Amino acid sequence: MNKLILIFLVFVSLTAQAYEPLIREDRVWEYIEQEGVVNGFFDVRLQQYVFDGTTEIGTILYHNFVRIGVSSWRETLMVDDSGNVYVEYSQAKPFVPEHTLIGYMREENGKVYFRNPNTRDYIILNPTTSHVEEQPATLQEGEEILLYDFSLNEGDSFWKFIQRNPDFRDLIPDCKMQFKVNEISSDGDGNREFVCGMDFKDYVPDKYSAQEYNSINFTYKEGVGNIGKGDMIGAEELRLTNEVLPYRVYRNFNNLYDLEGNIIYKGLNDSFPTTGISDINSEKPERDTRMYDLMGREIRNPQRGAIYIQDGEKHIAR
Fold this sequence. Notes:
By secondary structure, this protein is mainly beta.
């Protein structure tokens, strides 16, 4: 009897740890993109993606990763005469269906690959004893990029290709850098989450601030992919604020749905606005010395020229 119980417990344990593939056609991935202008306007887009069919290229069978629709609106952070901060919504466009091929992906032995659609230059970041050395390189058309590796263990290091928004590559180019799995955990569904960060945070790059590089980290989950900053292909966050291009662009995982629209895994869980105004704070505090960015998030050291809210009033960092 004890032997049968032991066999049953081992079977249950192995079943609970079974790997859930990422690529499947019964799921809908949703990501939110917020493109903000320093005068307080933020254009928000909810974009949905699916895997739809396969394409054979050479001898390799890929799955088609497709954007199936976008809903969008504009958010404007407002401050009334009493100092109350609220969001005003405008230019709302409900879900507009489409069928846009983003690229080809495949999954094998716990690794998920993306086939690069075109040739482009990038830089390899190698840490040295005093700085990060930049080595020019070229990613060829048809070359595969490793997006996720679910076979890694805590403490393992790996190289990851960081893809930037094509509109901003002249300012911040694509790059390849080394990351480390800092933590692996699992929640109620048994699927593991991998928390990854840069593997050379003590080094300061020559061209870019240490703060920018140290902010590059990501978390990905079995059966879901990236569940933090970025999207399915680019698991990172792009933030830009300068005199030439006064924008900030944020991307985040929003939700994972089944084909009936039920949430399978919850992210930011933002949704299309149904009212014109949404209050952030209804009462002005006696004196609030904390600072907030134009998305209502608390900040500590705003960059020069950035607009922030303090004690219910807008300020420009000097």
